[in-house]
Design brief:
alpha/beta; Rossmann fold; 7 strands; cytoplasm; Peptidyl-tRNA hydrolase; tRNA-binding; peptidyl-tRNA hydrolase activity; EC 3.1.1.29
Length: about 190
């Protein structure tokens, strides 16, 4: 069994989408890379990748941001998993989640995609939904705004103030999931904030 983990942040490519709610998964990858002074570089799997470690002597981490649009994330994710020989149960997908309030995290393995097209495409490409997910809450849009527009909007002013903490918490959750397993990460990060 490989001691490597593929950690993927879902999002859309390019500056137009960088600061949007849909790209919060990629923001978490940037945080994980920054903690290790790593830079993501182009990979032939149509992604940007940094190879690093949880800490010296611990699990190898392959941090990745697909260059594809969200709804077709599966190809790059499956290609990277194959390239590095990493099984689906060690592919952690970080993504935005409408059905979780902003500034809240939920972790799970497997289950449905909940209408998230990026997660749906990854499950299809990997041939299984049985991969760990770090779901970063972005909340539902106010009023009658279309959720498809909401996820492509930048975070609001009050959200932007709390966003660095939410991203840091999500990065902590990823590290704990790798280090101690899903249950430990759920116990720490599903508790309400004090």
């Amino acid at each position: 069994m490989s001691d490597s983990w593929l950690i993927v942040g879902l999002g859309n490519p390019g500056p137009r989408y960088e600061a949007t709610r849909h790209n919060v998964g990629q923001m978490v990858i940037d945080e994980l890379a920054a903690r290790r002074s790593e830079t993501l570089r182009a990979h032939k799997a149509n992604a940007r990748v940094a190879e690093t470690w949880l800490r010296p002597g611990a699990a190898k981490l392959v941090l990745a941001k697909p260059n594809s649009f969200m709804n077709v994330s599966g190809g790059p994710v499956a290609s990277l998993a194959k390239f590095y020989g990493i099984p689906a149960e060690r592919v952690i997908v970080i993504h935005d989640e409408l059905d979780i309030p902003f500034d809240t995290l939920k972790l799970k393995t497997g289950g449905g995609h909940g209408g998230h097209n990026g997660v749906r495409d990854v499950a299809k490409a990997l041939g299984t939904p049985e991969f760990p997910r770090v779901r970063v809450g972005i909340g539902r849009p106010p009023g009658r705004q279309d959720p498809a527009d909401w996820v492509l909007d930048p975070f609001g002013a009050s959200e932007r103030q709390a966003l660095p903490i939410a991203i840091s918490d999500a990065a902590d959750a990823v590290e704990l999931l790798v280090d101690e397993g899903l249950l430990a990460a759920q116990q720490r990060h599903h508790a309400p904030r004090a």
